[in-house]
Design goal:
about 350 residues, alpha/beta, 7 strands, about 45% helix, globular
């Protein structure tokens, strides 16, 4: 019996490793991500948010499971579908909503919006609207870590579509040649916009491509937080030990379209419903109750607290400070560059 969690010895490593409080916190973050995106979607439909957004509903286990193994000093780079990564790494939802609403209180002072949230204080080097754009940035961050002889790692999130970009291959090759402390996390949700991986890839798995760059290629069930964390933890430990990069492919699914303008005509209702049946949140809830870590009352309390935090975050953003149009060029150049 684990003295911290009370879990039996035959439980999988994920439940042996973390305390009950840490596991409940992981569930709380998954709820925050889900309700953040649902709240953002509702605000968009009410005309409170303009532009577009890319939701990751259904992929919460990948975002939280991957970031659980990280420390505050570790870096992440994210994608246009990166709200979950931000919250997983410790971002405050109310400041994220302020960014959505274009308010001065937002992480990027309202200049970045949905696709470009960054929070350097927690090691989040930023989401990126360019497919594959975060890959070389993560490699650069990992090179800096190695040059400074720090024990930190860089984690790069990207989608299956990005694995067909040149930056993917260049980044993996360079990271392997220099044995950089970087973990490449591919969230394979089966579609790059409207094109399925079956039609766009010559190999069955993104992880198969790791062999070309002499690094481990690992496949995890992206809808199982335990499976994701266990795979990522090994990759992170390997990176910290100076053994170089790992490519981890999380097989998951986005139940919403590519973006708000997506009519979902390229996939069937049956396929979406099948994946909704594999929803990572109720799956994690069931495992927590089965292990005696959380009761139904505990889960209801976590859910209600997440709901309240998101509602408060939206209200905070609505009442935020509108930017001054006269300062539209502020922060474009550093004070040093301006002389």
């Amino acid at each position: 019996m684990n003295a911290i969690t009370g879990i039996k010895p035959n439980a999988r490593p994920f439940y042996q490793k973390y305390s009950a409080a840490a596991l409940k916190e992981a569930l709380r973050k998954m709820y925050l991500i889900r309700r953040f995106e649902e709240g953002a979607e509702e605000a968009y439909m009410r005309g409170l948010i303009h532009g577009t957004m890319h939701l990751s509903i259904g992929q919460e286990a990948s975002a939280v499971g991957a970031t659980m193994a990280l420390r505050n000093g570790d870096y992440i780079t994210s994608t246009h579908r990166g709200h979950g990564h931000c919250i997983g790494k410790g971002a405050d939802p109310k400041l994220m909503f302020a960014e959505f609403f274009g308010k001065e209180e937002g992480y990027c002072r309202g200049r970045g919006g949905s696709m470009h949230i960054a929070d350097v204080a927690t090691g989040n080097l930023g989401a990126n609207g360019i497919v594959g754009g975060g890959l070389p940035i993560a490699v650069g961050a990992a090179l800096a870590i190695k040059k400074q002889k720090r024990g930190d790692v860089a984690m790069c999130f990207f989608g299956d579509g990005a694995s067909n970009e040149g930056a993917f291959h260049e980044s993996l090759n360079m990271a392997s040649v220099w044995k950089l402390p970087v973990v490449f996390v591919c969230e394979n949700n089966k579609y790059g916009m409207s094109v399925s991986t079956e039609r766009s890839m010559a190999v069955a798995n993104v992880a198969d491509r790791a062999a070309a760059y002499n690094m481990p290629g690992v496949i995890a069930d992206g809808n199982s937080i335990a499976d994701v964390e266990e795979a990522i933890a090994i990759a992170v430990e390997r990176a910290r030990a100076g053994l170089g990069p790992t490519l981890v492919e999380c097989k998951t699914y986005r139940t919403r379209g590519h973006s708000r303008s997506d009519r979902n005509r390229y996939r069937s209702k049956e396929e979406i419903e099948e994946w909704q049946g594999r929803d990572p949140i109720p799956r994690f809830e069931a495992e927590l109750t089965a292990h005696g870590i959380a009761t139904e009352a505990d889960i209801a309390e976590i859910r209600a607290a997440a709901e309240a935090e998101i509602a408060a975050g939206i209200e905070f953003a609505r009442n935020g400070t509108d930017p001054n149009p006269a300062e539209v060029t502020r922060d474009v150049y550093s004070p040093e560059a301006l002389g």
